[in-house]
Amino acid sequence: MSTTRQFSSISRSYPLVGPIPRPTDRNEQREALGAGLFTFILSLVAAAVLVFKYHTMQNDALGRVMDAYYVIYHQFHLAAIGFVWNPLPSLLELPLVAFERWWHPLVTDAFAGSIVSSLFAGLGAYYLTRIMQHWHISRWFRGLWALIYVLNPMIFLFEPNGMSDIMMVTTFLAALDGLLRYIATENIGQLVSSSIWLGLAFLNRYEAVPFALCIGVAWDIGMIVHGVPWKKIIGRTAILALPITYLGLLWIFFNWTIMGDPFYFANSEYSNAAQMKTGIYNFWVTALAKHSIPGTAHVLIFFANLFPPFIPAFILVVVVALVKKLDTEALILLAASVAVPLLQADLLFKGLSAAWDRYFIMYIPMGFLLIFYLVNVLRGRRWKTWVLSGLATIALLVGDAQTLSAIQKPGTGHGLRPLVAYLLHPNRPNSGALARATVIDTGNTEMAKEEADYINRHPHIRVLLDTFNFFFVIPYVDRPSQVVITNDTDFRSVLQNPRGRITDILVPQPVGISQLNMVNVVYPTLWSGGVPWARLVASFGSDRLYQVLSNAP
What we know:
By secondary structure, this protein is mainly alpha-helical.
């Protein structure tokens, strides 16, 4: 290949000469910020309605808020944030829970989590708009498509609910925005931005690892195909990979030095693997996929029903990638589309995934991006572009409608279905089924308040409890010194040798996921009265409070 031909090949994917895509002007920046601000406000309003009108919150969202609360509950120590979930959501919620004494719903209703997830919802709309600007989608369709995305039923329900899923979507969108803009402009700042967002993505969800690996490999293939020098490939890849690699090693180091196991987050008593072993999350989807490659493939395709336009859009982008001689942007989008499903495929095959609908939420944003990309590369004359954009709009609307249908079905709605049923029919007698996915301000929460009230009415007692089950008790306990919780540094020591250090132990019935409660792990017969040094003093539904006698270890 001649020097001229080689340089021309490089410039097609990395334009160093000729017309360079114009930088985002102020109007476009204001447009993206406007989309983000609108989504943030909309999400906060939705959060207030869900929490204060329908009295709903996600168990896991409350758990993350409580992890932040534990940091300042007894004394300030960051290790109390725990090593089961990635720490970013709780770290961001930490400044908010500090104001809990002035407004209790920040913790008791997990509203601190709703604020953080709403913020990331706004950032997601911001970066989605920027990606459309990068692909020169018309302003009118940018606004329309951003609105269709924000109002997608699954996206809309996760934006205000305090979970980490919308944070994952946003960090991935932000990382893609930076990488796509770097490919177009060679602006190193955009590449650094992408790498930082990938690092933050890891601090939020472990799906960041396959996502970063897949888009990094796809980018390298694109650079190799288009003749980019090896030194440049290695250097640029190192920039992209550095933050997530460093933070990953740091997380492993903290797990090792504090918990004694570098992979405690994956091996602990509370891990997904441990929870799956209880059998509580086994249903026909997980049974179909376990140890079966065809079954796993079937499940991955089955969950694409959350946004059916994803599959035809993915196939069309594959065709475009081949026609355009492995276009780098197409390769990255295809890799980003399969990254999270591939992780789920591995976990489902091994029987380590509960196949919640939220594990497949990336089908929705990636479906949108694949369609945006197709509109960009297939555009032609003005009338052709408008027809293509109109068809894309129909596809997106159909996709949203199918999402609403899918999350109401037993399989694809495994997780959201009870919540949607309750929101659509709040007065139905069987709406208590919502408890399978969320906490309502009745039932479980009332029992937790009753347990906390008992502790408050007996100031002389000191109770040990595992916050794996009893996290909702803690916000209602008036005196933190009256409880020893899982996140305390001496919890395991006190559990093994309780005499003289605590007066009582709160234990749940050892069924289902409560089998993993550390009290049940150490003393499996305590709940049934089979421990000679403990005496039953109170019952709260299926939970029991035992007094520690003088012959305890």
